[in-house]
Amino acid sequence: MGEVSLETSAYAKIILHAAKYPHSAINGVLLADGTKIRDGAKNQDLDIVDTIPLFHHSHNLSPMAEVALTQIETMAQSDNRIIAGYYAACENFRDNTVEKCPGQKIAEKIVEHFPSAVFIVVNNKKVVQHLDSPAINLYKYSEGKWKLKDANKVMFHTPYAFVTVSHLLERGVQKDLVDFDNYLDDLSQDWTNLGIEKLIASINASNTIDCKEKDYR
User: Fold this and answer.
1) Which of 28, 37, 85, 98 could pair covalently with 53 via S-S, beta carbons 3.0-4.6 A apart?
2) Which of 136, 109, 135, 132 lies closest to 120 in space, CA to CA?
3) What's the domain of life for this entry (predicted)?
4) Do residues 86 and 28 make contact, with C-beta atoms less than 8 angstroms apart?
């Protein structure tokens, strides 16, 4: 398979989503830079530039998923991005394999449309530890099932990704993350989480870690 790179904000939103709902399974989709995608090519490199949190309790409600994916695809196309994968975390702390994850049908639908799609599974045990290494496992669809791949295939855009995410967690930023369950309960909430993206961008720009300010919404 090709190499997979992750923007810090894309990785952060995965971990923040899992941390906000530690006793629930969660899922979401991965968005890649569409300008780097070759039509029809298999096993190509993916630059994951964003993640969209989906659900923490509506995993099995297909109408909800259809609404979410339609809105996400419309937004992605306007930004020259594509839905290029899926992420999830299991409800059970010890279940860190793709077979136990929720929303398998969503992942299968994505790979039908984009054969180079990847599946990221949150390693629950690493989320609660100091994040000095990726708290995720990477899977690729092959021969009819998702297969675990070498973690070294995942690269990060900045060397500060783990430190940034660790400090976001310490400051409780996960409380402000919005998934589609939150959005469907209150349509005024921002499921793109632009405020969190801006906070992370400011941290990256200054190479400092100071998440005490809460005026990033």
Assistant:
1) 28
2) 136
3) Eukaryota
4) yes
Whole-prediction pTM: 0.91
Q: What is the CATH number of the domain that holds 92?
A: 3.40.140.10
With respect to residue 118, please indicate whether it lies within any of the assigned structural domains.
yes
- 202-217 residue pLDDT tens: 887 775 545 455 554 4
DSSP H or E stretch at residue 181: helix 180-185
pLDDT tens digits, one per residue of 114-149: 999 999 999 988 886 656 778 899 999 988 889 998
Tell me, yes or no, whether 216 lies in a domain: no
Q: What are the beta bridge partners of residue 88? A: 27, 121
Cα of 152 vs its chain's centroid, Å: 18
122 strand-pairing partners = 136
Residue 111 lies in a domain: yes
